[in-house]
């Protein structure tokens, strides 16, 4: 279990957080822009130093202000994927991937990783010849090939178009699960949290607001719904009694009829992230007949 | 007049100066970009002085320092048993100082232009600062490094004031191409001066053109 307890103050902004990152799981650091998510990632990686606190991987202290310990970034077993692809433009895909590999590593293992990311055949390409999605895949594999104890992902898909993002989310989920790597994932996209995270830490103005499973955090345990669709509100039509809320989930639209009062209570507007939930008792299922 | 000897001396001086400035300027440029020392601006100002200072002023103070009674001059005399002023080594020292900003500033600018994310990515992949510098920063700064070397070379080729102040006009030792042209003009040999000047002009243009052409090719391959 990674333990993160840190405090850092800039001119008029303070980050003060205390949370844990379970081993082999994906933890999402969720919050709006300016909540301090990326800064926390940078401090954990060692690219920035906290004013006080402690960061531990469970075995070794990476940072401890009281003991004056600060492991430089090079000595922390991390893989860092930044918001924009940070591939070295003068190196081929293969050389980028092998950049951080020290000592011998079996060719088969590296080939497997390249294949896992769907990059077979691109080994001799230069970053400028790749699409945005492919670049981020290379960045991800480059980070993973070192077998890091902690994978840090800073909104890695934010610069991609919707289709590439969706594909990469699937790939990332598959790769992370297959390699069983402990991951801390920064995002402000609630759909991504649902799709990828086992645990979510909600940040606001540099403080941890809540943490738990995505269901606990975003829906509340009381609902215990069986059907959940996460998406963005793209339309609200309402009269005095009922409202039809259209949400977009991936590339599909869903419409839910709810009480108009509920829309007012939630102060729901177009652009909000929402979860539509339904209890199992409310759900009907039937098989479509193909022969009559 | 035989113009080959002064031209060869200018070439030798430019080459030695460029090599030395490359060796000294690269770590210096790196330090200026990445050091967080507050008084860095003072060092930057000192380096840039030759850009604004009349060469005779720089030459005069250099002469005081490297002359027989100067600190460096006396020290050099004790160790090597010869004077530093009015020698080729003295010219090299003067040229290095005079061309320092022409090397360091392009190096510095190109190092600063390397995307910080790439440097941090290299560190996060477990690579040291030195390894990152050699494998990432240097290759991505090729343009600035070539520019700095070319400017140093060309600037030293055309050097006159400092050379004359600290080197004088000793044939085969300190009479470089620009001083030789000056000599010819003083002797009213405009024809010879014209030929010498034209050779220097064409040579300088050819060197710059070739290097900038190669530089463009480098950039395209990135």
Kindly describe this structure:
- The complex is a heterodimer of chains A (292) and B (222).
- Chain A has helices at 37-45, 93-98, 107-116, 132-144, 162-179, 190-196, 214-219, 260-266; strands at residues 2-9, 14-21, 26-30, 52-56, 61-64, 69-70, 78-81, 150-154, 183-187, 199-204, 207-212, 227-238, 242-249, 252-259, 273-278.
- With 292 residues, chain A is α/β, with parallel strands linked by helices.
- Chain A has two domains: 2-217, Rossmann fold, CATH 3.40.50; 225-282, RNA polymerase II/Efflux pump adaptor protein, barrel-sandwich hybrid domain (OB fold (Dihydrolipoamide Acetyltransferase, E2P)).
- In chain A, the strands form three sheets. Chain A has a six-stranded mixed sheet with strand order 7-8-9-3-10-11, sandwiched between helices.
- In chain A, helix 5 links the parallel strand 8 (150-154) and strand 9 (183-187).
- Chain A is globular.
- With 222 residues, chain B is an all-alpha fold.
- Chain B has a single domain (4-221), classed as MetI-like fold (Orthogonal Bundle).
- Chain B is globular, with a radius of gyration of 20 Å.
- Chain B starts with a helix and ends with a helix.
Summarize the structure.
Chain A contains eight helices and 15 strands. Chain A is an alpha/beta fold and 292 residues long. In chain A, a hairpin with a 4-residue loop joins strand 4 and strand 5.
Helix % of chain B is over 70%
Pattern of helices and strands of chain A: EEEHEEEEHHHEHEHEEHEEEHE
**Domains of chain B (count):** 1
> Can you identify the CATH superfamily of chain B?
MetI-like
The global form of chain A is globular
Which fold name corresponds to the CATH topology of the largest domain in chain A?
Rossmann fold
Oligomer: heterodimer
Question: What is the element string of chain B, with H for helices and E for strands?
Answer: HHHHHHHHHHH
**How far apart lie the N and C ends of chain B?**
47 Å
- What is the fold-level CATH name, i.e. the topology of chain B? MetI-like fold
Structural class designation of chain A:
alpha/beta
